[in-house]
Amino acid sequence: MTEAYRIGNVILEFTHQFDEYFSSRIPAYKTTEKPEYRMRVLVEDRLDIPTKNIKFSYRDRTILEDESGGCIVKHNEQGEITHLIDYRHDYREITIRLSRSLGAHLPEVEYLITGMMFFEIAIKNGLIPIHASAIGYDKEAILFSGPSRAGKSTQAELWKTNLEDVVFINDDKPLLYQTDAGLFVTGSPWSGKTPKNENIALKVKAIVFIEQAQVNNLIALTVYDKITNFLRNVYRPREEAKLDNVLDLIEKLIKDLPVYRFYCTKDNEAFAYLYQALYRRDY
Amino acid sequence: MKRKPNYILREVAGENIVIPVDEAAINFNGIMTLNSTGKFLWNLLGESTTPTELIARLEESYDVDMETATRDVTDFLAKLRHNKILEDE
Fold this sequence. Notes:
The structure holds two protein chains of two kinds. Chain A has five helices and 17 strands. By secondary structure, chain A is α+β, with helices and mostly antiparallel strands. The longest helix of chain A has 19 residues, at 106-124. The radius of gyration of chain A is 20 Å and the shape is globular. Chain B is α+β, with helices and mostly antiparallel strands. Chain B contains four helices and five strands, in the order βββαβαααβ. In chain B, the strands form two sheets. A three-stranded antiparallel beta sheet of chain B has the order 2-3-4. Chain B has a two-stranded antiparallel sheet with strand order 1-5. In chain B, a hairpin with a 2-residue loop joins β2 and β3 (15-20). At the A-B interface, β4, α3 and α4 of A face β2, β3 and α1 of B.
């Protein structure tokens, strides 16, 4: 299955092998524009390590590089290669080779690895993935961010239940970016466990780092807390050159956006409390 | 001793932040913030140096007594060692 997709400002020709994750997540992003990036997935019986220099190894991964590009090699516990990711340094060409031995895990591995590589392309293009559930309401976006199991999707669901015109922009890694008109968020097909994503871009109204509590309380964060929360929750590229893109955006987020910590319950009271705080009117 | 490569110091919204990159980014997912003394020492540790030299440079540049400089340098080096950012030669 090969198609061109526009995700944010990235036009990607994408070849995937399995439909389990993508059939519900990706069709909305189809485009007829000319792709600037190409990512394809192949399933092969045998994977061989390319002849490149070893940059470093860590646990089950080895990173190789030469002047043309890099290769990430992942092994299983038996030492067999489970996947190889070949990429040009500018990420214009990415080939992901999956071992057929992954069997029933192939669709999930395909979804996770293509997401990981897409995020590298995104960051290069000024789109910063943040671990959050993003909703759209009243032509603006609210992001619920925080660590896994903090209840991000629960808060997003509460808004959807209580308000008619709420849309899920992305339930796992929405993409933040800045323009002259302000800070925006857009969806992508990589939305975590759920297919909740929308091919729309909305101006960000607020970012809320959530923490479960018995009583609802919204506090504005200090600059230091904003930095640490953003750095913990944005997708951080390994390479120094791309890290600057992320840090520039974080600086902008801190300067221009309301950023809160929301100690919250998991029920409608949390929704009503936050709605009142953000919109200065009772629900 | 000197600090390991693959850690970068950046100023974000007025805060000095140490962030791991490349191999260090996989091993260490945290971040560290530095005050102005920490930033001064961090920059000196880019080259091979000794605690005695760091104390002397701090005394000279920050107009602090030896006791204060010694305490600041000791605390800072302990923080780097704790985060495995320092390599002894």
